Amino acid sequence: MKHEPFKGRSVTLNRLLEEQQALNMRLLLAVQLQDQAVQQALKQELEENNAEINRLLTRRL
Questions:
Q1: CA atoms in the 13 A half-sphere facing the CB of 58
Q2: Distance (Å, rounded) from C-alpha 4 to C-alpha 17?
Q3: Which residue pairs, CB below 8 angstroms and at least 24 apart, start in 27-36?
């Protein structure tokens, strides 16, 4: 289920935040549909996204 929507383009904080918002919306739908497998996959993607956001923010400091 892993995808890289921004592969080939430079990663910016705004793009990561947009991806985070999209993942959150997909996670909400998975919760509503009670799909545990999709929830786990999306949570993993969110963790990876958050780690990348943190890496970007710590490089800026």
A1: 6
A2: 14
A3: none
